[in-house]
């Protein structure tokens, strides 16, 4: 039987998947997990779960984050080649002129 192992490095951290172990029962799986996944890195706790009990929900099952496009929230959607608004360009010019005047004073 395959058991999935999740490791928590420090108390209060999230548990993250670190691998799996093959064991006939829960107690052996916990022992194997402690040996294989708990010794190599700092570990606060391990979760050992039968693989069949791990459920998956993917994008085919549900629309994550709703249906509204919110790509503007991510820097990856910023396109520097698009013309900027006139006010922004004017403001940049005014700021540069103000800095120049402060430097001359």
From TrEMBL:
Q: Which domain of life is it from?
A: Archaea
Q: Record's Pfam families?
A: PaaB
From the UniProt entry, list the residue stretches annotated as the region Disordered.
Answer: 86-105
Could you identify this protein by its name? Answer: Phenylacetic acid degradation B
Species whose genome carries this gene: Natronobacterium lacisalsi AJ5
